[in-house]
Design brief:
Blueprint lengths: L2 H14 L5 H22 L5 H5 L3 H13 L4 H22 L24 H10 L7 H17 L3 H5 L15 E4 L5 E4 L3 H11 L22 H15 L7 H14 L4 H8 L4 H4 L7 H11 L8
Antiparallel strand pairs: 1-2
Length: about 300
């Protein structure tokens, strides 16, 4: 059996026995054909089942490396490797052609983009000015409190909207805010005086200050919907000319980025954000490139010398 005959048998099996959609069969067929075409060039001849079983990890990595050189993303390379693995599982089960090498090649990891933070002045303007265009004092006070909290404490929007009146940090208090984050894990977050003042101003308009009531309410009295907060931010950034990256979650990124730029310890930022892994927090180190350059220029004894 030639490699092309094996590919055709694989596609027939996908469509008939696995009942894969025509689009899936077409995509798998394209990916496996791409792999087999590479092997024909790489090995100098069209491979048969014996040649496929004898492939080494370096052969499969060479295929992925060539695709990387062509500019294919990690996600696309990962998809093609998944199709190749499925093809070899079929060959092992139906034709006794086992290729251990395909199991030894790691899946390409997609590069997570660095968090996109706002400038300090932009983040301050959101917390200070959002809601001012509304004719409702209720909405003005609520939005100012919510967005001041997001930037001042680095909360996720879901964490802020899940708070209750009993959780409200008020002026005169010194204790941290207890937040329940992902995985139902609790963490303690220090609270700025500005956040306490904004929360107190909002509570003066809160219609139901029972301890178990939601801290942030919609105009109809229920817990505020995240979509409303997202819409409020969209309207604010369009009126003020802020970049599209200015979202409620960008305030959390800004919180972390600005702390890092001011010299905060990465481990401390990890705890404040509630990240389970330090590697997640380390993404912020790539954001403050300008800050690193400023530190280098100020600290290196020869940074100011001319060539």
């Amino acid at each position: 059996m030639t490699a092309e005959e094996a590919r055709q048998a694989f596609l027939a099996w996908l469509g008939s026995e696995r009942r894969a959609s025509p689009l899936t069969v077409e995509a798998y067929g394209h990916d496996v054909a791409d792999f087999l075409g590479f092997l024909t060039r790489h090995l100098g001849d069209e491979p048969d089942l014996t040649a496929l079983a004898a492939l080494r990890p370096i052969d499969i990595r060479a295929f992925l490396a060539e695709r990387h050189a062509e500019g294919l993303s990690a996600a696309t390379r990962s998809r093609r490797l998944a199709a190749v693995r499925s093809f070899f599982r079929f060959l092992a089960r139906r034709h006794g052609c086992d290729c251990p090498a395909v199991r030894l090649v790691a899946t390409p990891r997609a590069h997570r983009p660095a968090p996109r933070a706002l400038t300090e002045s932009a983040a301050r303007s959101v917390a200070r000015d959002i809601g001012e265009e509304s004719d409702s004092a209720f909405v003005q006070a609520r939005d100012a409190a919510l967005f001041t909290l997001l930037y001042g404490c680095g909360l996720r929007i879901s964490e802020a909207l899940n708070l209750h009146v009993r959780d409200a940090p008020l002026p005169g208090g010194t204790g941290p805010l207890t937040v329940r984050g992902k995985g139902d894990k609790e963490r303690a977050v220090p609270v700025l005086a500005a956040v306490r003042v904004a929360i107190a101003a909002w509570l003066a308009h809160h219609p139901d200050r029972q301890p178990d009531s939601p801290l942030f309410l919609g105009v109809r009295g229920g817990r505020l919907d995240p979509a409303v907060a997202q819409r409020t931010m969209r309207g604010f950034r369009r009126r003020t000319g802020l970049a599209e990256r200015a979202t409620p979650h960008a305030l959390r990124h800004s919180f972390a980025t600005h702390l890092l730029a001011a010299g905060a310890d990465l481990r401390a930022i990890q705890e404040l954000l509630g990240h389970a892994s330090l590697s997640t927090t380390q993404r912020y180190t790539s954001v403050d490139a300008e800050g690193l350059i400023r530190v280098w220029r100020a600290a290196h004894p020869r940074a100011g010398e001319r060539q």
